[in-house]
Fold Guanyl-specific ribonuclease Sa.
Amino acid sequence: MNRRCIRSTLQSLFFAGLLIATLSLLASGGTSVWPAAQARETSQSSQTSAPQDIPVISVADLPVQARDMLKRIEQGGPFEGYKDGVIFGNYERLLPSKRRGYYREYTVPTPGARNRGARRIVCGGAKHHPDVCYYTHDHYASFRRIAQ
């Protein structure tokens, strides 16, 4: 088989799958036929409706490593993580909607972890004096606003 024939076959398979998915969606009355997609749609709609209901955590209740990271953020560094200070996209839509670049993320070291771990602080506003900061211990699955 030559490349043109293979490409044509792959395109046909792709469009056939797209057609089947579209017909299945229409037959289901507009609701998703795939449970994972339906769960994602449900979770996204609930997430976008209530970011102001984010629970609050006091600085004193944060892990020691998170308190240290907060001090570093306010001082402008130094940061040990290679991704500290990068833009956080808020793709999960758990935080209030802001313009791109408003949020920055910082790694909170996890004792014993061989990688970055799941703990982060996400701050919004000015880089060294943020308006608001949030803590997540489960890699963006949930957030708590840090009361300062």
About this structure: The chain has a mean pLDDT of 78. The longest helix spans residues 3-27.
